[in-house]
Amino acid sequence: QVQLQESGPGLVKSSQTLSLTCIVSGDSITTTNSYWSWIRQPPGKAPEWIGASHYAGNYYYNPSLQSRTSISRDTSKNQFSLQLSAVTPEDTAVYYCNTGPHWGQGTQVTVSS
Length: 113
Hints:
Elements: E1 3-7, E2 11-13, E3 18-25, E4 35-41, E5 48-54, E6 59-61, E7 69-74, E8 79-84, E9 93-99, E10 102-103, E11 107-112
Parallel strand pairs: 2-11
Antiparallel strand pairs: 1-3, 3-8, 4-5, 4-9, 5-6, 7-8, 9-10, 9-11
């Protein structure tokens, strides 16, 4: 059974960097053809894809967030991470990690002004 668990601070100050990690069990982040994504949903808005880590070590980003986003992975720990820099209150959202039909429970991140 594939399980994903987001971890990281729930409160970040404006202009700082948001850092989250997704811990994966039941599958490997290097499984052939797999993508491991970060998605967020601001309050009252539609979900927004942030970016993804490809099993081969490539990374893909939403162009609208690319300049502030960095995704990385640690294959030894079977986890992948998100960093979003220069955050503003508009980055307040529930952040999810995802692969295929499998989702983490989500973590609320609030950016204080």
